[in-house]
């Protein structure tokens, strides 16, 4: 053993003391800055509420240190400005952008208010008015307190409702004439001798109050990622919270809050309304957390996929990115847009730009589209959709995705599994009215191979008819495992594309089939385009074991309670992957060892079973930690 060296020990203690002092100094040196749009001044120090800065331009041009905070005054509004973050924190000392005071969250507008004095009437066109580019730029400067170099409007709002863009309307071959003829429309003419904005407000502009008309001027440009009204600009170790962004819309651009590059950014309790391509975006970034976000009202006429409330995207400039989206909300999407979309662009040297994406407890009010949540994660990447509610929309997967414990309701409720390695489990799908003939639709559709569909409760609208399957198989060779499901549909268990002669390559174990108006038989129904009608056959015994036919005895369907009553026949499902009967249901409740054990929602275990399970838990706890 080496002898103790007192000199060395003293040096170590001194070094540790120096580190502690440095950490203490770093903590002391952290500064809080205040910004107030109404009562601030950019010549102030910014370090006290009564010495606040005024503009976001001042924030954008300032350098901040790890641990600093930049607080925006509640009730403040900034028009035609961006919050561009140009400093990084550290993991232990992130830079925070938040709020102070009381009232509404600080709001950053990508738009500027337009007053009637800025407009001139267009002769012969009732209700149509024109504002020149020069006048638009001058108006922008009065709000942003900064020079505006070129200000084409990218969206126009009347009382914060989108006006229709003549440029995006397929029939608008002469956009200016279109605006003159159509109330509630607009067009920015950049190519004329006097460029400017045409608006048909449907009323005399002089009767409009200031701010009734607003035009988005932030956004567009060659780099859509940089178009976010809030833009992190490749910085890391940030916390952004309690921020509000409004009217950032631009075609194929105009993000609300854009987290681009960098790592470890937390975006919390913030809202975006009136965005263009995406309300919230995590682009080429890792360690991202978006929690408690609210997105609504996206730019119309962009086409399917042209806009989403949330997006997680990475290309070959990034590798193994991760993001988590927890307790977020998407409402009034204003078109057939997905609420959440993740995708990536891999390369030979970077096969997995995205490593994992978690979407947990998202609340979505959709607009009748199949893909309220859609995910393409390349390579070994993993998408997990866990919990949450989707009204009148669906989940579409493209491989290596787990959809677990989601409640989907309404006519367009659907889960569609493409690719392989998907697990669809513990989901409640009710009210679905799919039509297989019109597009190979089912409440749950398997268009891939080697997927697992288990422990779901599916209730199809009985009026949908025989061509509305609870589970639809895109081919007879899927290799799917289907077990432990409670399926209520008009006479259909599985619906297969085929000629009615091939036995499907699936395993169907311990499912309860409940006819909601059909034959009540366990059937496979084959469909092939060109046939006169569907071909129904009994389920071959070679692919099925332990399937049941009967009523599941739901607790109270009128109130949306699809848990099982005690004594239901939906019992004792066997999981062949674990050789066990015990799993968890949609709410995370353990499936009872005795009693009901299939479908998405369980009954409360009998007292004896509950005591037995509690005894197991106590035993395991004591064993592990004694």
Structure, described:
- The structure is a single chain.
- With 626 residues, this protein is mostly beta strands.
- The protein has five helices and 54 strands.
- It has a 15-stranded parallel sheet, with no helix packed on it. A 14-stranded parallel sheet has the order 3-6-18-21-24-27-30-33-36-39-42-45-48-52. Strands 4-16-19-22-25-28-31-34-37-40-43-46-49-50 form a 14-stranded mixed sheet.
- Strand 8 (120-121) and strand 9 (128-132) form a beta hairpin.
- The two termini are 35 Å apart.
Say what oligomer this is: single chain
- Mass-distribution shape: globular
Give the biggest sheet. 15 strands, parallel
Mean pLDDT, to the nearest integer, reads 83
Task: Compute the CA-based radius of gyration.
Answer: 29 Å
Strand-residue fraction?
A: 25-35%
- Structural class designation: mainly beta
Topology:
Elements: H1 6-29, E1 32-35, H2 56-60, E2 69-73, E3 77-79, E4 83-84, E5 95-100, E6 107-109, E7 111-114, E8 120-121, E9 128-132, H3 133-144, E10 155-158, E11 161-162, E12 164-165, H4 175-181, E13 185-189, E14 196-200, E15 213-216, E16 230-231, E17 238-241, E18 244-246, E19 257-260, E20 265-268, E21 271-275, E22 278-283, E23 288-291, E24 294-298, E25 308-314, E26 321-326, E27 329-331, E28 340-344, E29 354-360, E30 363-365, E31 373-375, E32 382-386, E33 389-391, E34 394-397, E35 401-404, E36 407-409, E37 414-417, E38 423-425, E39 428-432, E40 444-446, E41 452-454, E42 457-460, E43 471-473, E44 481-483, E45 486-489, E46 494-497, E47 507-509, E48 512-515, E49 523-527, E50 535-538, E51 544-545, E52 548-549, E53 554-556, E54 561-564, H5 607-625
Parallel strand pairs: 1-2, 2-5, 3-6, 4-16, 5-17, 6-18, 12-13, 16-19, 17-20, 18-21, 19-22, 20-23, 21-24, 22-25, 23-26, 24-27, 25-28, 26-29, 27-30, 28-31, 29-32, 30-33, 31-34, 32-35, 33-36, 34-37, 35-38, 36-39, 37-40, 38-41, 39-42, 40-43, 41-44, 42-45, 43-46, 44-47, 45-48, 46-49, 47-51, 48-52
Antiparallel strand pairs: 7-15, 8-9, 9-14, 10-11, 10-15, 13-14, 49-50, 53-54
């Amino acid at each position: 053993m080496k002898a103790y060296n007192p000199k060395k020990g003293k040096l170590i203690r001194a070094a540790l003391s120096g580190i502690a002092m440095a950490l203490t100094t770093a903590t002391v040196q952290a500064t809080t800055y205040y910004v107030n749009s109404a009562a601030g001044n950019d010549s102030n120090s910014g370090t006290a509420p009564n010495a606040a800065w005024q503009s976001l331009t001042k924030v954008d041009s300032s350098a901040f240190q790890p641990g600093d905070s930049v607080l925006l005054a509640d009730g403040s509004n900034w028009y035609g400005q961006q919050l561009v973050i140009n400093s990084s924190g550290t993991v232990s000392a992130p830079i925070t952008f938040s709020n102070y005071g009381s009232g509404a969250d600080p709001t950053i507008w990508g738009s500027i208010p337009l007053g009637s004095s800025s407009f001139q009437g267009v002769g012969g066109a009732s209700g149509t008015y024109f504002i020149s580019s020069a006048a638009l730029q001058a108006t922008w400067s009065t709000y942003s307190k900064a020079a505006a170099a070129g200000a084409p409007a990218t969206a126009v709002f009347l009382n914060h409702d989108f006006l229709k863009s003549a440029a995006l309307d397929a029939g608008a071959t002469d956009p200016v004439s279109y605006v003159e003829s159509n109330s509630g429309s607009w067009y920015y003419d950049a190519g004329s001798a006097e460029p400017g904005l045409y608006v048909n407000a449907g009323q005399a502009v002089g009767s409009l109050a200031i701010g009734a008309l607003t035009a988005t001027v932030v956004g567009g440009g060659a780099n859509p990622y940089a178009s976010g009204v809030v833009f992190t600009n490749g910085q890391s170790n940030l916390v952004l919270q309690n921020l509000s962004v409004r009217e950032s819309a631009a075609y194929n651009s105009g993000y609300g809050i854009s987290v681009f590059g960098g790592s470890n950014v937390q975006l919390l309790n913030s809202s975006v309304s009136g965005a263009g391509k995406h309300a919230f975006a995590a682009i080429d970034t890792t360690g991202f957390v978006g929690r408690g976000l609210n997105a609504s009202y996206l730019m119309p006429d962009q086409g399917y996929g042209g806009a989403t409330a949330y997006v997680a995207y990475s290309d070959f400039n990034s590798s193994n990115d991760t993001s988590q989206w927890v307790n977020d909300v998407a409402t009034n999407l204003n078109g057939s847009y997905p609420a959440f979309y993740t995708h990536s662009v891999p390369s030979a040297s970077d096969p997995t730009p995205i490593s994992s994406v978690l979407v947990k407890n998202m609340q979505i009010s959709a607009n009748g589209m199949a893909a309220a949540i859609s995910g393409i994660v390349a390579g070994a990447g993993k998408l997990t959709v866990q919990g949450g509610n989707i009204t009148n929309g669906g989940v579409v997967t493209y491989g290596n995705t787990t959809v677990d414990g989601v409640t989907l309701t309404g006519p367009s409720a659907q889960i569609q599994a493409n690719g392989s390695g998907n697990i669809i489990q513990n989901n409640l799908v009710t009210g679905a009215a799919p039509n297989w003939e019109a597009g190979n639709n089912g409440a749950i559709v398997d268009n891939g191979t080697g997927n697992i569909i288990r422990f779901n409760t599916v209730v199809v609208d009985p009026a949908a008819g025989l061509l509305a399957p609870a589970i639809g198989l895109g081919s007879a060779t899927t290799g799917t495992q289907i077990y432990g499901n409670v399926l209520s549909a008009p006479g259909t268990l599985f619906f297969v594309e085929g000629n009615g002669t091939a036995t499907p390559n699936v395993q169907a174990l311990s499912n309860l089939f409940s006819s909601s108006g059909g034959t009540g038989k366990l059937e496979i129904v084959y469909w092939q385009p060109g046939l006169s009608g569907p071909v129904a056959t009994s389920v071959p015994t070679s692919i099925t074991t332990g399937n049941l036919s009967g009523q599941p005895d739901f607790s109270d369907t009128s109130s949306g309670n699809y848990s099982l009553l005690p004594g239901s026949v939906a019992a004792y499902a066997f999981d062949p992957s674990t050789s066990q009967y015990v799993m968890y249901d949609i709410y995370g409740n353990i499936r009872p060892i005795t009693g009901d054990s299939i479908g998405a929602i369980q009954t409360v275990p009998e007292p004896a079973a509950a005591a037995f399970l509690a005894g197991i838990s106590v035993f395991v706890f004591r064993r592990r930690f004694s």
